[in-house]
Specification:
The structure holds two protein chains of two kinds. Chain A is mostly helical. Chain A has 17 helices and no strands. Chain B is mostly helical. The chains are: A mainly alpha, B mainly alpha.
């Protein structure tokens, strides 16, 4: 199946769901990502990974890793929707557009098409966020993330760099690409917008960015230095290494000391910043496997931790935080160990920064585990379903910790 | 006949400055039309008549889609409105208001665009250097407009400016894919225009007492 058809299905189902469903049937919005995941499984797999540094071309196709990321993210988003206490059906539109854009961006080796797909996703998210909560934080998302996608659009006329690998052109392209990636992944100094939206919006509104868009952008960013960037390669890698590590430390500290309601978002941002720093700072290393383990763990725990604390699931939340703490044999322990191994091969400064970030995340996880939310037990078997789903997700999370590389290979093929 | 680079640059710079300053309900289509007109000589120099036609079509599409979006936003009954011209924050009566910040940004964009023009060659087959100034200036102004945005309308004007500027840059790079690339990049401008019109239509519908009574 062609990725363009999968994207069209995401879009059509999203628009249909938001137009047709009503409050009583709102939970059926989960069909949109479920159908997206199902169709992605049927895609005609490409042997080579799509690196968006080529000329103008069609959609190259999804490779095994891209397919795995999209399927896992779509399933996680479906579970986020199913575990929410209440759903606004209009979110179906946003999910449809973001899912379609993520599919196109992941399957395209054309920088302009990738950039425009990401622009469509960000524009849809920003319009929803501003509509839900007009204010400084949501407008900042439009300003910064919008500028990021525009930087990617601006880099497109200068690509491919074949024959122009030295001089200022590759450096300008690398700077534009790094700015775009940093803005979309909300890496500091371009990450304040994400902290703002996590604090001011409902978790369901943040979920399409957090669960669907961030893993896709992370994988695309990991692939960029594998293309022809010439003199721009070190610029791209070093910029993202430095800002990623700084962002991880900052995010980790704020996760530990900041308000409890924003803790998961901060931990997620710190982990993603660590991943981008490691995969760019040490490209030929176990960093990618570590990053994939961490992404997979977050996709498992996000449906639980994005559910409001007041809506119950006290013990599943505690176990989810334990999985994020980095204590062995949790999956994040192996993921962060691989990231640390990769960063340690670079220089001692990177290692120290990564250790500080990981220690902060551990403190944040312990503080979250010790929180005392009022348990809200469900009545009857329907009330128990979220709890059952949460424990099943946690079982998957624990399994990732017990066999990290096997499960990562099963999902992502690497 | 040689091309007067200063003349091309002047047309693009004037258009970008006006697009940077324009405000109000029709800001996006006005910015797109002006920028397309200002960059059309550059596009025609490198892309010939088809190059100028791309920008012309983008401008016409922006006007038509803004109007279509406005009509659609007013007609569809199941949507609530978000007025794209209402600032999300910041008082409007400050000494250095949004236009002052944008004027400052437009001034800052000159050395940036100048550096890009003379140091970054564009082109796939033969590198073109020194003629990127109006495009780089329009792009920088678009990004600055995005960064200092206070309203959704500002964001959409910024996206439209970057779209038109990138489309023209695609025409400069020449080669087989320059024309489709320009079309794809320029498509961002009419889309932004449609969204602005759509949002205005929705918000004006909400403000209408007749429609309120019907609801």
């Amino acid at each position: 199946m062609n990725p363009a058809f999968i994207a069209a299905a995401w879009l059509a189902l999203g628009l249909l769901a938001s137009a047709v469903l009503r409050r009583q049937t709102a939970r059926l919005v989960a069909i949109v990502p479920l159908a997206g995941a199902g169709l992605t499984l049927l895609t005609a797999r490409s042997q080579a990974a799509a690196i968006p540094l080529g000329g103008l071309s069609g959609i190259a196709g999804l490779d095994r890793t891209g397919e795995g990321v999209l399927v896992a993210a779509a399933l996680s988003l479906a579970l986020v929707l199913l575990l929410q206490p209440s759903i606004d059906v209009s979110v179906g539109r946003t999910i449809g557009v973001v899912g379609a854009s993520a599919t196109i961006a992941m399957a395209s080796s054309d920088p302009l098409l990738t950039a425009l797909a990401l622009t469509a996703a960000v524009a849809t998210l920003v319009l929803r966020w501003i509509g839900q909560s007009p204010g400084r934080a949501t407008l900042a998302a439009g300003r910064v993330a919008g500028t990021g996608t525009m930087a990617l659009v601006a880099a497109s006329p200068f690509l491919p760099l074949t024959g122009f690998t030295t001089g200022d052109r590759p450096i300008v392209v690398a700077a534009l690409l790094a700015a775009g990636v940093a803005a979309l992944l909300a890496v500091y100094p371009l990450g304040g917008w994400a902290a703002g939206i996590i604090g001011s919006l409902k978790p369901l509104d943040v979920a399409p960015w957090l669960v669907l868009l961030v893993p896709v952008v992370l994988i695309i960013a990991e692939r960029i230095p594998g293309g022809v960037l010439g003199d721009g390669s070190p610029v791209f890698e070093h910029v993202l290494l430095v800002v990623g590590l700084g962002s991880a430390v900052w995010g980790g500290i704020w996760a530990a000391w900041g308000p409890g309601a924003m803790r998961y978002g901060r931990v997620f941002m710190a982990d993603i910043a660590l991943c981008i720093a490691a995969v760019e700072g040490a490209p030929v290393s176990p960093a990618m496997t570590g990053a994939l383990i961490i992404v997979l763990t977050h996709l498992c725990v996000a449906p639980i931790l994005l559910r409001p604390e007041s809506a119950g699931l006290l013990w599943p939340r505690r176990v989810a935080w334990a999985l994020l703490s980095g204590v062995p044999p949790s999956s994040t322990f192996w993921g962060r160990l691989l990231l640390l191994e990769a960063l340690a091969a670079g220089n001692v400064g990177s290692t120290i920064a990564a250790v500080i970030a990981m220690a902060s995340i551990f403190v944040a996880s312990v503080m979250a585990c010790s929180g005392r939310a009022l348990p809200a037990p469900g009545r009857g078997w329907r009330g128990r379903l979220p709890e059952l789903a949460a424990w099943l997700l946690l079982a998957v999370g624990i399994a990732i910790g017990l066999a990290p590389q096997s499960l990562t290979r099963f999902v992502f093929g690497v | 006949m040689g091309v007067s680079a200063p003349l091309l640059s002047a047309a693009g710079v004037i258009a970008a400055v006006v697009a940077m300053m324009v405000d109000g309900r029709r800001a996006v289509p006005i910015a797109v039309v002006l920028l397309a007109a200002g960059l059309a000589p550059t596009a025609a120099t490198f892309g010939g008549a088809p190059g100028a036609a791309v920008l012309g079509t983008a401008a016409i599409a922006a006007v038509v889609l803004a109007w279509g979006g406005w009509l659609g936003g007013r007609a569809l009954p199941w949507l609530s409105g978000l007025n794209p011209t209402i600032p999300a924050f910041a008082p409007s009566d400050r000494l250095f208001g949004p236009r002052s910040a944008r004027a400052f940004g437009a001034a800052v964009a000159i050395p940036v665009a100048s550096w890009v023009s003379f140091n970054v060659p564009v082109g796939q087959i033969t590198a073109v250097e020194g003629l990127l100034f109006p495009i780089a200036y329009a792009w920088t102004c678009g990004v600055i407009r995005l960064l200092v945005a206070r309203t959704v309308e500002d964001l959409l004007v910024g996206v439209a400016m970057v779209g038109i500027a990138t489309g023209t840059a695609w025409l400069l790079r020449s080669g087989g894919d320059s024309f489709p690339g320009a079309v794809l990049a320029c498509a961002a401008a009419p889309t932004a225009s449609f969204l602005a019109g759509w949002l205005h239509g929705r918000s004006s519908r909400r403000a209408s007492p007749l429609v309120e009574a019907e609801a």
